[in-house]
Write a structure and sequence with these properties.
It comes from Echria macrotheca. Belongs to the glycosyl hydrolase 5 (cellulase A) family. Its EC number is 3.2.1.4. It is an enzyme of class 3 (hydrolase). α5 runs parallel beside α6. Strands 1-2-3-6-7-8-9-10 form an 8-stranded parallel β-barrel. The radius of gyration is 20 Å and the shape is globular. By secondary structure, the protein is an alpha/beta fold. The chain has 13 helices and 12 strands. A hairpin with a 2-residue loop joins β4 and β5. The protein binds 2-acetamido-2-deoxy-beta-D-glucopyranose (3 copies). One 2-acetamido-2-deoxy-beta-D-glucopyranose binds next to α4.
Length: about 400
């Protein structure tokens, strides 16, 4: 009896909020535009030692203060190979790897994101005459998967924001890449792969573009769907571009539709990009509502990653780059309230935990003690699993 109650408690907690919380540590993508050209003179790998932002310090801070456990590390395809399908530029990969290692050092899962809009220099992968082939993309991912084969804290977002292309052909391209990655890692399915649909991976267009249907058909070579998830992006401005300061929606309609599709398909997604202007009161309200909704639907939304920090200044339109004052980092108010705040407040599963624990808990409004209680709660599943066994 007690054991089954304990098990219910763990299940309740798992459904309470997203498993992965974090932010893009951007800069490796700077200079990339939606036609898949990337001006490498603009690349700013977000490490101070490489002349970029202090991504290393930010990730440490975010992991310790915000409980972030996933960082997305965007990079230009051209930075890694000068030509599509060409040899890896080992000097550049070593620079990117410094960022990856700084991420891994925080204990977080690190999401490699090829930030090329399904294109290389204006041509669509597998769809433009004379453009990059499926094998060109597969060879890039084979090299990356081989390099990080032994680390299950590495995850792969095959491509940032595909758009204006044939979704069925694109899904076939992704299938080849998934097969290549799993082959490079001896058939183990333990690393997460994120698959992106068209209209810039739009959460609101997942169903109507046929992206959802095409992407859920992709399988691991062994026929399973283990650790194959969908990447969803969504902004709150009028045209969903993330280029305007005004927020016009809390996106619950879009994410609600995506959630219903995922639930019916028995699949999960990670919201790998969303963001809003940090000093805009309308944005604060809408963004907090959106993120509370994503947390409340964590059975299908496994992660919530915002945009962006890294080499962005604190004055960038959608900046989540923390301020550095008096020798320490301080969150942007938007980050504090709408990312950390909604995550902390999303404790729908706690009531079922309360039934199974006799430890008195006092969740106060005070930030510090909330952190302590929440950190303790995160250890509970392990403790409960131990008790069940
Ligand atoms: C690697 O790329 C850099 C520019 O990003 C370039 O200077 C260097 O020559 C390239 N190395 C090789 C081996 O192609
Ligand atoms: C989001 O906005 C809609 C429409 O304005 C509203 O009905 C809904 O309650 C909001 N959602 C949340 C979670 O506040
Ligand atoms: C938001 O306000 C802070 C404090 O005034 C300022 O430093 C920051 O640059 C502003 N951010 C934007 C995007 O305007």
């Amino acid at each position: 009896m007690i054991k089954s109650l304990v098990f219910l408690g763990a299940a309740g907690l798992a459904a309470a909020r997203v498993q992965f919380l974090g932010v893009s540590i951007a800069g490796g993508d700077f200079g990339c535009t939606i036609d898949g050209t990337c001006s490498l003179s603009s690349t700013q790998i977000p490490l101070k030692s490489l002349g970029g932002g202090d991504g290393e310090g930010q990730m440490k801070f975010f992991a310790q203060s915000n409980m972030y456990n996933m960082f997305r590390l965007p990079i230009a395809w051209q930075f890694l190979t000068a030509t599509a399908g060409g040899p890896i530029n080992e000097t550049n990969l070593a620079k990117y790897d410094q960022l990856v290692q700084a991420c891994l050092a925080t204990g977080a899962t690190c999401l490699i994101d090829i930030h090329n809009y399904a294109r290389f220099n204006g041509k669509i992968v597998g769809q433009s005459a004379g453009g990059p082939t499926d094998d060109d993309l597969a060879s890039l991912w084979t090299a990356l998967a081989t390099k990080y084969a032994t680390n299950d804290k590495i995850a792969f977002e095959l491509m940032n924001e595909p758009h204006d292309l044939d979704i069925k052909l694109w899904a076939a391209t992704c299938q080849k890449v998934v097969t290549a990655i799993r082959k490079a890692t001896n058939g183990k399915n333990t690393q997460i792969i994120l698959l992106s649909g068209i209209n810039f991976a739009s959460a609101g267009d997942l169903v109507k573009t046929g992206s959802g249907e095409a992407l859920v058909a992709i399988k691991n070579p062994d026929g399973t769907i283990e650790n194959l998830m969908i990447a969803l992006h969504k902004y709150l401005d009028a045209d969903n571009s993330g280029t305007h300061a005004d927020c016009v929606t809390n996106n619950t309609a879009a994410f609600g539709e995506a959630a219903a599709f995922l639930r019916a398909a028995k699949r999960q997604a990670i919201v790998s990009e969303t963001g809003a202007a940090p000093n805009n009161t309308g944005c604060l309200a809408h963004f907090c509502e959106q993120n509370a909704f994503i947390n409340a639907n964590s059975d299908v939304f496994a992660g919530l990653l915002t945009w962006g920090a890294g080499s962005f200044g604190t004055d960038y339109l959608l900046s989540e780059t923390p301020f550095f004052e008096g020798g320490k980092f301080i969150n942007q108010p938007l980050t504090q309230q709408c990312v950390v705040g909604t995550f902390m407040a999303s404790t729908a599963g706690v009531s079922s935990l309360m039934e199974v624990t006799t430890t008195p808990m006092e969740v106060t409004k005070d930030g510090a003690s909330t952190v302590v209680v929440s950190a303790w709660l995160m250890l509970l599943p392990a403790l409960l699993a131990y008790l069940v066994l």
